[in-house]
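Mods, move this if it's the wrong board.
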Amino acid sequence: MRRLGQVAKKAALILSTLSAGAVVRAIVSGPASGQVQAGQPEKYDPGKHYYAMGIYVDRCIGCGLCVQACKRENDVPAEPFYFNTWVERYQVPASGETVVASPNGGHDGFPEPAGKMDALRSFFVPKLCNHCDNPPCVQVCPVGATFKTPDGVVLVDEKYCIGCRYCIQACPYGARYLDPRTRTAGKCTFCYQRIVRGLKPACVEVCPTQARVFGELGELSSPLVRFKRMNKVRVLKAHLNTEPKVYYANLDGEVV
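Not the wrong board. Structure tokens:
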């Protein structure tokens, strides 16, 4: 605990080009080399923040801009198998089973469904790593490569990751993948390299309908706190007791 306090007090001067994993290593090890860019805070204390995300399901239009922005910002492989965030379309028919589709993760939007369906309702649900307070991925990692930061973000240190896939199997949200280039686990980082500089995650910034809300749980003035106070929110798979920190407003009961 003493070491953690010392680390927080001498948080790094971080370059914007660093990956999320590199950002955390810089914070843990001390000031990074190089010049600080204009507008970048000199210090970042992870112990003074606690992040989460909210999503208005009824505002999402399935445009795919969030998926595109995430891939660009975080250098996610371009192939249609790897996503830090993706969007699913739910179609609830008058009879029969709910149809769930996510072509290319929603990256290119959603085409009109083939054939006719007498749908009672149709809606889009963005998904991502839930940055759980009780993350099973952290528990199963044999080398400590997956860890939770003091500011509540679950990350992967690619220098320690051995590509065993235990965390991928343990994640109940299907939010992880094995990067084919590095053979290490990849996932949403809340764009950690951005939030430590006071910026929003890329997916939040580009959303044309403001379906995503990002903020801090401990700040009364945070948009995330207001989101939780003004809406009836749910989390995915609450029965698993992973304590997710991605909250959904107006979430349909058909969503799993």
